Structure formats: C-alpha cells, structure tokens
Amino acid sequence: MTRILMIVGSMRRDSFNRQLAREIEGLLGARAEVSYLDYAALPYMNQDIEFPAPAEVAQVRAAVQAADGIWICTPEYNSGIPGVLKNLLDWLSRPLVANDPERVSALRGKRVTISGAAGRSAAAGVRGSLAKLLEFMQMRLIGGEGVGVSVNPEAFAGGPLRFTPEQIAALRVQADAFLEALES
Ligand SMILES: Cc1cc2nc3c(=O)[nH]c(=O)nc-3n(C[C@H](O)[C@H](O)[C@H](O)COP(=O)(O)O)c2cc1C
Questions:
Q1: What percent of the chain has pLDDT over 70?
Q2: Mean confidence (pLDDT) of the chain
Q3: What's the 151 CA to ligand 1 centre distance in angstroms?
Q4: CATH class for domain 2-183?
Q5: Which of 51, 78, 80, 108 has the fewest other C-beta atoms within 10 Å?
Q6: How far is ligand 1, taken at its centre, from the CA of residue 164, in Å?
Q7: Which residue's CA lies nearest to atom 11 of ligand 1?
Q8: In this structure, how many other beta carbons lie within 10 angstroms of the beta carbon of residue 163?
Q9: Packing angle between helix 83-93 and helix 55-66, nearest 10 degrees?
Q10: Pocket of ligand 1, candidates 78, 127, 156: which has the most ligand atoms within 8 Å of its Cβ, to mutate?
C-alpha cells in the first residue's frame, strides 16, 4: 500500500489546511495509507544541537523516511512559508550524519506535492516559494506549484469550510497524478 505522509503547515486547532488534508485523504480513499506528521514539539533549528539529533528531530526524520510520498497542505503567511513549516523543512534538509560528504538528508529524492488553503490568493505566494524551496532541497516535486484553495468567506467568519466542485475536481486530479507518480 502506498504510504503518504501529510504535513500541515499550521498548528491551529481548527486549521483549514488540516481540513483540506482530510478532504484529500478522502479523495485518496483506499488507494493510500495516510498519516499525519506531528511536529509541534520540534525545537527551533540550531546548529549547536544538531548532532546527535534531538529525539523530536529523529522522530520526524523517521516518519518522512517511512513514507513513499509527502503531501504538504499549508497556509500562506505574508505571501510566504509559515515559520513552523520552514523550521521543520530546515531540520529535514540537513545531513543525517555529521560531516557526511554526500550530505544525504531525509528529504533528498523524496516525492512531494503541494496544496494550500488561504484567502483570495489561494496560497499562490506560498506555493510558489515552497516549490522552489523543495526543489532546492532536492525533493522530487510532483504537480509543480500544486492546487490552491480560496477559503469561503463564511469559514473565515466562523462558519463551516466548504469546498466547491471545481476545487474538489482539481484536488482529485492532483491526487490521481501523485498516486501515479508514487506507483511508477
Ligand atoms: C501571520 C499571518 C499572515 C498571513 N498572511 C496571509 C497572506 O499573505 N495571504 C493569505 O491569503 N492569507 C494570509 N493569512 C491568513 C491565513 O492564510 C489564514 O488565516 C488561513 O486560514 C490559515 O490557515 P489555517 O486555517 O490552516 O491555520 C495570514 C495569517 C497569518 C496568521
């Protein structure tokens, strides 16, 4: 069974992006085994504590290594990547072993795709920045800048988050393409 690890770029309890990830999980259905990365306890990147890796870092690395693919669902903060997500990716981008001349990281060569729920921008800013960053980190990006979802205004006002048929259709295409890439 294809294993997909969801990384949600928000710590918010009622995060729209976590709800987006759940929706995607539904679209993947029985075709994938989906898990969610818990990285709330990760320390800030600090090279003074890099080796040996803190337990929280070892845990997120193990979860990434066990997955066939990574699906990032992220909000947009000031047109860019939320700090918590950037901190996680910085940790994951670092070599597993000190002074490794090959600088092998948990992310290198891992297949990844991007979605984002935000305001009117549909997370275009963060998706663009993230696409560049993930390629810089030598990940295999599937689906380019991915799929953006503009959150319905009622949800921002405390009402339920609703996805339009067009948004669902785009996410379905992304899910099918990602699964195909992971299975090939
Ligand atoms: C610090 C900060 C900056 C934000 N900047 C943007 C932005 O540039 N563009 C945008 O569409 N939304 C922006 N937002 C709104 C978030 O996209 C919105 O709150 C989103 O629902 C957060 O995702 P979440 O529900 O998964 O936590 C910002 C929110 C915060 C807290």
A1: 100
A2: 97
A3: 10
A4: alpha beta
A5: 78
A6: 20
A7: 119
A8: 17
A9: 80
A10: 78
User: Whole-angstrom Cα distance, residue 14 to residue 19?
Assistant: 8
Residue 184 has pLDDT above 90, yes or no: no
Q: Are residues 76 and 118 in contact, defined by beta-carbon separation less than 8 angstroms?
A: yes
| Cβ-contact 34, 178 below 8 angstroms | no
Show the 3-state SS of the chain. Answer: CEEEEEEECCCCCCCHHHHHHHHHHHHHHHHEEEEECCCCCCCCCCHHHCCCCCHHHHHHHHHHHHCCEEEEECCCECCECCHHHHHHHHHHHCCCCCCCCCCCCCCCCCEEEEEEEECCCCCHHHHHHHHHHHHHCCCEECCCCCEEEECCHHHHCCCCCCCCHHHHHHHHHHHHHHHHHHHC
User: Hey, how many other C-beta atoms are within 10 angstroms of the C-beta on 150?
Assistant: 15
